[in-house]
Amino acid sequence: MSSPSETPGDSPGAGRPPLFVGKGWKKNPYVWAAVAGVLTIPLLKPFLRRIPDPPAVLAQLADRTFHQPSGRPVALYSLRGRPTVMQITFDDCANCQRSLSAMRRLWREYDKMNVDIGLVTIVAGTSEAARVFAQRAKARPSATEKAVWPVTVAKDRWQIWAAEPAQLKKWADRALLPHLLVAGAAHDAGVAPQQLHDLGGALALIDPQLGLRGIYPTSGLGPDEVLHRSIHVMLAARK
What we know:
alpha/beta, 32% helix, two-stranded antiparallel sheet, six-stranded mixed β-sheet, globular, Glutaredoxin
């Protein structure tokens, strides 16, 4: 029983609409406000982007030679003809696992959409390191991924290359690092880190003429941005 000085309306939370109590949630304004937010925010994303589609060319990448897992040389120029998302990975890279997950997601999404967009991962190490990475990256999906994994995945869409770390650093210092947009930074506020390992948590978007269109973080909305921008680069190339 309540005390004489206390009425049912004085109890904590009295008068507040319940969130999920029986059928009461249908009349709860907080629930409908949340639903409206969930539906509206994705629709506003394109209008919040301050860089137009497709993004401008930041730099033109010069040719250089890498190596396939078999040891055979492969030229950067071999990527010409279709947009490509590039990832650089290292053995001691803290962010590379997240970057790998983003690449696997793009691999699935591009395959489901049946679009001509490639992926390339450059492993800082030997051709054997690239071979081991390729086996791990393209392994059968985990139980949590099977629900969204395509029945057949175009394995030639994702190439794995190798490069000697010192040579890779020299190339990336000149070609990529000055244009790196680090995680948490606005897409139009460039930062130029001094460490090659900063690229381990990033995805570079390259157009069919090897023009660098942007480097995006694998955290937050980074993978969504890469997916969106790469489609627009592909469509612009067809005009």
